[in-house]
Amino acid sequence: MSKNIIIAIDGPAGSGKSTAAKNLAQKLGFTYLDTGAMYRTITYLALRADVVDNCEEVIKIAQSVKLKLQTDNGKTRVFADGEELTEEIRTPEVNSKVSEVSVIPEVRVEMVKIQKALGESSNIVAEGRDVTTVVYPNADIKIFLTASIDERANRRFKEYQAKNENITIEEVKANLEKRDKIDSGREVSPLRKADDAFEFDNTGLTPLDDLDYLLEKIKEVLSSK
To answer: What is the DSSP string of 202-220?
Structure first.
């Protein structure tokens, strides 16, 4: 493959974007970019400072923080001003607020600046809500990954169970439905399938199934260019 190839994956929460992107990046030797982790970090910092409902203060955090994403043994580690927040950003509390923070236009502007810069310097597999439509509109491969709401809720619930989080599957499903509504309905960079993206519904499939299918599809698309 030539240098600076961008594979962009969008989709709703719980669709398996992170796992698929990480597996693809590892298989192809590309850099993995978890854009959602960036918005989660801003949300966590705003929650910790008790300003998550104060739009101006959230914007200040996004404009001043120095974010760093580092991949170690297939795991993305997240740092804010030198402090590691890898686990802290994956809680139900952050999940419940991240869509509200990511809808703020000024926050998105700051995050997209960082994401675009990364795309100019290396081959990447990026995943998020608007990487195929806003961040990398000229990506070589665009994928819209989805799954049924029940499948997505079950996946996320299992993640929380593994972390001993006190939450019910009904609460997880309600949270996902709320996030879907916010992500798809926001005025700035809404979640939607790009016109030139191919859609992949992985309901009932395993991460290995996803990887096999996506690798074949990527080869097919690149060979036709």
So the answer is: -TT--HHHHHHHHHHHHHH
